[in-house]
Amino acid sequence: MRAAPTATAVAHPNIALVKYWGKRDEHLIVPLADSLSLTLDVFPTTTSVQLLPGGAQDVIVVDGRPATGEVLRRVTGFLDVLRAHARRHEPAHVDTRNTVPVGAGLASSAAGFAALALAGARAYEIDRDPTELSRLARRGSGSAARSVFGGFVLWHAGPPDAADADLASYAEPLHDARLDLAMVAVLLQTGPKSVSSREAMRRTVATSPLFPGWLASSGADVTAMRAALATGDLPAVGAIAERNALGMHATMETAIPPVTYRTHASHHVLDHVRRMRERGEQTWSTMDAGPNVKVLCPVSDASRIAAELGEVTGCRTLVARSGPDATVTTGVPT
Ligand code: PMV
Predict the structure, then answer these.
(1) Residue 199: enclosing H or E segment and its boundaries?
(2) Domain region containing 277
(3) 204 lines ligand 1 (CB under 6 A)
């Protein structure tokens, strides 16, 4: 028997400047609000998908090891979405290689599911319109919808009364953004997180008294962020991003029971970034579902700022810039 051809795709993580936090539809992964991100040029994930005609079940390998538990369940569930879309039944062999520490709030799931959506769509011969690929990636992990595109990206939640919520929620690149932004990641901790972002979001939406206020302000943040990106206004971009991220953490920290991703070390970096700003540096912080802090700054200052943050924390730092679209690198012939 001839082996089925393999499709391989590469995608990069993205960091939201206006965060996605809270779902309107848990099953379809439709968010409560729009979000806006920057796809990075570091930590790509490469994923290969090979169909197994006549095979009994999916085989999922992550970083050289057979996937188990929640990861296996999520990837298999996503392959089911692709199969339903393609009206096909073959199981698949998935081999995925991350270069980002998994589960550390650096969005490995975004790059992972974007790469899997592209490679899987190619393997199962699904329509490859980028908007459709973004919708598909969303079904794996919400933020993956944004990693389908490079640069600054807007993910539409879609109207609350949309007739087809799945169709209405997808990401698109922002072509009018005029800003060369750097992001310094301070890698405080690279172990897996204690509470998944999925669970943390659910708990926040259900129980935090601060959540409705943050959600309402994030709509205005997207509008202001778009305007600031279009005029290349870095201080406005930084200020909106920092306040939006700190607000998101305030919502989860007031959930019942609270979700606390910020550690003592995170607060130390947040304080230091504020002090740098007070002495005239252009530095603003953002954080995701983990303890690491990412610092927004001008590209020309990034290596100096990374060196200072490395010295102050004793931790590894890394400078990222705007990254590319997700791409299929080797594919099943069309
Ligand atoms: O896609 P998920 O379920 O990993 O959600 C990630 C949400 C945040 O990273 C915290 C914010 C965002 O918009 O990326």
Answers:
(1) helix 197-207
(2) 181-320
(3) no
**Closest-lying ligand 1 atom to the alpha carbon of residue 141:** 1
Q: Is residue 30 part of a domain?
A: yes
CA distance 4 to 53: 8
- Burial class from Cβ neighbours inside 10 Å (0-12, 13-18, 19+) for residue 69 reads exposed
269 & 171 share domain: no
Residues 11, 145, single domain; the answer is yes
For ligand 1, say whether the CB of 149 is within 6 Å of any of its atoms: no
Ligand 1 center–CA 203 separation, angstroms:
14
pLDDT in tens, 61-78: 999 999 999 999 999 999
Q: Provide the pLDDT for residue 103.
A: 46
289 CB within 6 A, ligand 1: yes
Res 193: pLDDT: 72
- Condensed to tens digits (0 to 9), the pLDDT of residues 144-193 reads 999 999 999 999 999 999 999 999 999 999 999 999 999 999 988 766 67
Residues 257 and 200 in one domain: yes
Would you say the CB of residue 16 lies under 6 angstroms from ligand 1? Answer: yes
Contact in structure between 265 and 291 (CB atoms under 8 Å): yes
Amino acid symbol at 52: L
What residue's CA is closest to ligand 1, atom 10?
288
Structure tokens at 3: 């082996």
Look at residue 1 and tell me if it is in a domain: no
Asked if residue 172 and residue 226 are part of one domain, the reply reads no
Confidence (pLDDT) at 232: 97
**Chain segment 11-57, per-residue pLDDT in tens:** 999 999 999 999 999 999 999 999 999 999 999 999 999 999 999 99
30, 197, 262: residue to mutate for ligand 1 pocket, most atoms within 8 A of CB: 197
What CATH number does the domain containing 211 carry?
A: 3.30.70.890
* One-letter amino acid for residue 47 of the chain: T
